[in-house]
Amino acid sequence: MARFFNKNLKFIRQQKGISQQEMADKLKLDRSTISRWENNDMDATVENAIQVADMFNISIADLVGKDLTIGNNTHFDELELLFDKHKDILTDDDKEYIKFIIEKRKKEIDKELDKD
Question: For each of the chain's 116 residues, which pLDDT tens digit applies?
């Protein structure tokens, strides 16, 4: 598949608290298939990768092209999941505006907490 599919699959599955068997059942596959993907013993088909991305509500590009286990993704960015879920209605400008509002509010809250 791609560079990060196996690593991201295991990471996201564990973050969501889903067992290999539960995932296999949802995708109508054998548990051993999930295990072989995660261990990089077997490549997933493009169709399977799309199913996995849809199951976890993540873009296929992120699933296969980014290492989601490092940096700010350690606790899985819920905002990005929300954006991905609504990708058909949110523009990039909308996403930036939402991030701006959240950051602004965080700073206001931090100021208020410092005053106490």
Answer: 568 999 999 999 998 889 999 999 999 999 999 999 999 999 999 999 999 999 988 889 889 988 888 854 444 567 777 777 788 898 888 888 888 888 888 888 888 887 76
26 in any annotated domain: yes
For helices 20-27 and 31-38, the axis angle rounded to 10 degrees is 110
Q: What is the pTM of this model?
A: 0.61
On whether both 12 and 62 belong to a single domain, the answer is yes
Q: Is 37 left (phi over 0), alpha (psi -120 to 50) or beta?
A: alpha
Q: Are 18 and 55 in contact (CB under 8 A)?
A: no
Give burial (CB, 10 Å; 0-12/13-18/19+) of 63. buried
